Amino acid sequence: MSVVVRRRKHGGRQVDIRLRLADGTQYRERRVLKTASMSTAQRWGLERERYLLVNGLPQPTKEVPTLAEFAPRFMDGHARANRQKPSGIAAKETILNRHLIPMLGDKKLDAITNESVQQLKFALQAKSAKTTMPKSKKLVAKD
Length: 143
What we know:
Elements: E1 2-7, E2 13-20, E3 26-33, H1 38-55, H2 67-80, H3 86-104, H4 114-123, H5 129-132
Antiparallel strand pairs: 1-2, 2-3
């Protein structure tokens, strides 16, 4: 564990913090502070190092879209970008608009679980098996 403070050409100080965590991984954080004094930057670096050791590493937060927000991006980025047939694109849009978005549209993508999918299939049980099962999962009758 170390805290190194360097002077920058354009003013301020760069604080370089290096940690080795209990599991053996290394973490490095560099920040530029707009302070003139080395001692202030050194004190900030030691406090930041202590904070990281006590509270753990910062977890990145990534905004996850809902299914309704993601559907147009999927259609443009996958179906149309791969130049699928118009009938295939129309089928995907119909499935999204008629079945998926009404039931799962307000859920975030990472919140859609296997249970959610099974509930959707249960809601569609009055429909043909072709509606609820993808081609690879269909049972094929053997003669």
